[in-house]
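Data's thin. Show one?
=====
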Amino acid sequence: MKKYLFKVHGTYNIIIGCGRLGANLANTLSDEGFDVLIIDRDKDAFRKLSPSFGGLTLNADGTDYDVLQEAGIQQANAVIIVTNNDNTNIMLAQIAREIFKVERVIARLYDPERDCIYREFGIDTICPAILSAKEIDKLLGQAAAHIREEAV
């Protein structure tokens, strides 16, 4: 079993899920000089990574305990879980936090009703629906302010 752990720059990040968000995040972190390992069970998913991606890929099931150990999850500074399934993301977040004692764990959730619940358990979450609603509200507020300024 090959160990994927590396700590060249001192910060080791594991991303589980190489969809659009996972790939973009991996590319960004890699470009910023962070050590990144991205895990996905679909080998074709890694095509989304940029040619300049300097991290590592692991074609495996990120829900498998042995795969997480192989990835060096115990030494990870952060684990970011962005699969397309809320239940998988939360389960992996709990495993990373409770079993492997990873300090920084972030999970994407699609269901905004679950967001508050998991935050109460100390799991950092990102919910696209909530973020989008906040951004739209902010843009509407800016537009209203602009209209008021023009009216004066």
Q: What stands out?
A: The longest helix spans residues 128-151. The chain has one domain: 12-151.
